[in-house]
Every structure is written in C-alpha cells, then in structure tokens.
Specification:
The chain has a single domain, classed as Metallo-beta-lactamase, Chain A (4-Layer Sandwich). The two termini are 21 Å apart. It is α/β, with parallel strands linked by helices. It contains 10 helices and 14 strands. The strands form 2 sheets. It has a 7-stranded mixed β-sheet with strand order 6-5-4-3-2-1-14. The protein has a 7-stranded mixed β-sheet with strand order 7-8-9-10-11-12-13, covered by helices on one side.
Length: 304
C-alpha cells in the first residue's frame, strides 16, 4: 500500500469511513486523498483514526484535514487525528481547513488535549516530541461562497463549494484538482446546481448515498414498534440527503468516470445488502465505475 500511495502518477482515494451515525460496524465519514506527496483527510468521524491505523495509513505524514460541516459524525475524531499523528511521528505543522466555525472547533479540541500534548513532551523530551508540532492550526473560509480555493501548492488545488444540508449551515463540499484530474467530495447534501457543476467530468465523485425507500420502511417499522422518536428521525433525515437514484442520475449526466459511495444510509450489514439496495439501483442508471464496499476501499486514478 505505501508504495502505491507514493506513486507520483496516481491519485489514491481511500474510503476510511463510510457510515452515518447509525452503524457501529463501520467508521463514520472520513476520506483520505493521497496526491503529489500530500496526505489529506476529508472529515474524520468517530472511529476514523483507528480505521486509518488499522489500514496502515501513514498518519505521521498527515498534511491537512478538511471539515465539511459540524455534525459530529464528520469531526468526532478530530482530536485523535491531531494527537495520534503527532504521537506516531508527525514532525511538521498540521492545518485544519473548514467553513466559519472551524476555528472554535479546533480550539476546543486543542484545549481538551493540552495536558496530553504536554505529557508526551515531558515524558519523551522535546527532541522526540517537539511541542511545536503537537497541535494544529485552523484556517476558516466563507462556506456560503462558491469556488474558494482553500489550498494550493505544487500544482495541487483544493477548492470548496456550498452544499445543501438544511438547516445545517455552513456546509460545504470539496474539489481536489491535480494534473487535469478532479476528485469531488460531495459532503452531506441534496442535489444542487453547484454539485452538478463541480461533478462535470470528474475522475471520481465521492457521493452522499441514501436509499430513501429503505429509510422510509424503517420509519414505518419504528411506528409499528411504537417508537415515535426513531420514526421521526427516519422521517427527518430524508429531508437533507440525496437518494441513491438522484446520485446515479447526477453522475451519469455529469459524465463522472468513477463513483464511490460514502455516508451510507442505512449502513448495509453485508455485501448482499450492499448489492441489492445500493449497487443494483445505481447500476441501473449509472454505467461508469462504481465503488461500493467496506471501509478501506481504495480508488486509484492514473494521471495522464
């Protein structure tokens, strides 16, 4: 894996976590992108740090984290990602990018981990655990603006676009561009013109995937079990995610070369459920390369 991650002629995208908050069997949303020697992490929900280490990803090389919005299943492991990358050998600054509010988020985690950072340096010494690399800095941008370039270095560009996850604001998706290839990360969203525009001709779209028929069936089941709270949750969450058929149509119409599913709702318990309730409906509409599987699935994009 390590050799492939360092391939200068390939962008490698790894679905570290593909769950929404309903599953304990998968890590929550997190996507790793390796491009031109950089290691970017897009969101870091609960379980994602442990998942990265289980996959033997080089966490000490982590360069930047990009947060889409402030639902906890997208940032719960932020403190662990900052701390573990340092403990495992990160000896360079780490930056966390996100829309307005990310500074408060990062500062909160840094405060919570302050004693941990000090203890590591006190125990091992500053030469082994340099305190200047223990934390992270934050960079905020306007989540309501379109096409803001939030990172650009050595030909690698990361830009943001406004996503629609009402009433959650700010909320964004991201586009990673390098050597004529484009990787789009939708974030949690309904279908929008901004997403259609960014997805046009993408080498890969990592798309929010909800089977609304299944969620509606779960709502009805909860009502029959006299659980009005969970029934209401199943009703409400359909308001701010796109259905898998909408995702498939968008990908087809935008000429997306590869489609990878994340934030699976409901998280399928096995491959049979994945094939029946996600892959099947999508393949009936979209005929590009479809990546749907367990956490750790890797997508390699050759560079021309």
């Amino acid at each position: 894996m390590a050799e492939r991650l360092d391939d200068a002629d390939t962008i490698t995208v790894i679905l570290v976590g593909t769950s929404n908050p309903m599953s304990l069997d998968r890590a929550q949303t997190a996507t790793a992108v390796f491009v031109n020697g950089r290691f970017f992490l897009f969101d870091c929900g609960d379980g994602s740090e442990r998942a990265m280490e289980a996959l033997n990803l080089p966490v000490a090389r982590l360069d930047a984290i990009f947060i889409t919005h402030f639902h906890a299943d997208h940032f719960a492991d932020l403190g662990e990602a900052i701390d573990r990358s340092f403990v495992m050998g990160r000896r360079k600054p780490l930056t966390v990018y996100g829309p307005t509010g990310v500074r408060d988020l990062v500062d909160g985690f840094l405060g919570a981990y302050a004693a941990e950072f000090r203890a590591r340096t006190d125990h091992h010494g500053a030469a082994m655990m340099p305190p200047e690399f223990a934390g992270a800095r934050s960079v905020e941008f306007d989540g309501d603006a379109e096409g803001i370039v939030v990172y650009e270095e050595d030909g690698v560009r990361v830009s943001s676009f406004k996503a629609s996850h009402p009433p959650i604001e700010p909320n964004v998706g991201y586009v990673v561009e390098y050597r004529g290839k484009k990787v789009v990360l939708s974030g949690d969203t309904l279908v929008t013109d901004a997403l259609r525009k960014r997805a046009e001709g993408a080498a890969l779209l990592v798309g929010d995937a909800m089977n609304k028929d299944l969620i509606a069936a779960m709502e009805q089941a909860y009502r029959e079990m006299d659980n009005p709270f969970m029934a209401a949750v199943m009703h409400d969450i359909r308001d701010y995610h796109m259905d898998i058929r909408e995702l498939a149509e968008l990908s087809r119409d935008a000429g997306v070369e590869r489609l990878a599913l994340h934030h699976l709702s409901p998280p399928p318990p096995n491959r049979l459920a994945m094939r029946r309730y996600f892959e099947g409906p999508i393949r009936s509409i979209y005929h590009g390369r479809l990546y749907a599987g367990d956490d750790g699935l890797a997508v390699e994009i050759p560079l021309d």
